[in-house]
Write a structure and sequence with these properties.
237 residues; mainly alpha
């Protein structure tokens, strides 16, 4: 169980690191947009080369597709609830929450799958760890910057991301503990759930925010993030 907890903490650490970096100073809008675009590209690669391919190989297309649909529906519904709360709160306090929501809905099933692999005796490559940093760090930086601009205190921002990171880390332990009863279809469905939630988050929040902040260089940053994460996925495989 200890190795699963340690790897869970490693996978979740970028979320807290991003919040701390965002709180150090006010970063230029263009730089945050580039970071968000880079992270969006990395997440697209993660969906295509890790979540989708692994889910298809483990459990086949039906549970994977059902997971994608469920993940998309859950994120869409949760995001609408956040929007209603933002309207009642005046909007500023909810800035950045969709990215945090996406990180949570992606991180929990993804790290459950990581726990399954650890329980089965599978190793964790350095390339995979780097890929997690590449995708998680920009989400946290971008969301934290938006929350800080909306008037949320640094302490509350760090606490938010610490809570998300703790849940994701514990999901790795839960995956390790439940590995004996998890069917291939369940694992494929979890991969699909993470992919579906991420796809909606990318289109609704992360990519538009990257474009708004970085403007003409957002596309190039996205391509670079995709290329790096795709290369790491290939090496890690």
């Amino acid at each position: 169980m200890i190795p699963s907890l340690l790897w869970g903490l490693v996978g979740a650490a970028p979320l807290v690191i991003g919040a701390l970096l965002a709180g150090l100073r006010r970063w230029p809008d263009r730089l945050i947009g580039v970071v968000l675009g880079f992270g969006a590209g990395a997440l697209i690669a993660s969906i295509a080369f890790e979540l989708w391919e692994e889910g298809l190989e483990i459990g086949g297309p039906i549970p994977l597709a059902l997971g994608v649909a469920l993940g998309a529906a859950v994120y869409f519904t949760a995001d609408r609830l956040v929007e209603r709360w933002a309207a009642r709160a005046g909007g500023g306090a909810a800035a950045g929450v969709p990215l945090a929501l996406g990180a949570l809905l992606d991180g929990v099933p993804e790290q459950l799958v990581l726990g399954f692999g650890l329980a089965a005796g599978g190793g964790v490559s350095v390339a995979l760890v780097v890929a997690i940093f590449v995708s998680n760090l920009p989400e946290s930086v971008g969301s934290s910057a938006d929350l800080l601009e909306g008037g949320v205190s640094r302490g509350r921002v760090v606490l938010l991301w610490a809570a998300v990171a703790a849940v994701c880390a514990l999901a790795t332990v839960a995956g390790w503990a439940l590995a004996d009863v998890a069917t291939p279809g369940m694992r494929a469905g979890l991969s699909g759930f993470a992919a579906g939630a991420l796809l909606v988050m990318l289109v609704d929040s992360m990519i538009p925010e990257a474009q708004r902040r970085a403007k003409d260089v957002a596309g190039i940053a996205t391509v670079l993030g995709f290329a790096l994460a795709a290369g790491l996925s290939t090496v890690g495989g």
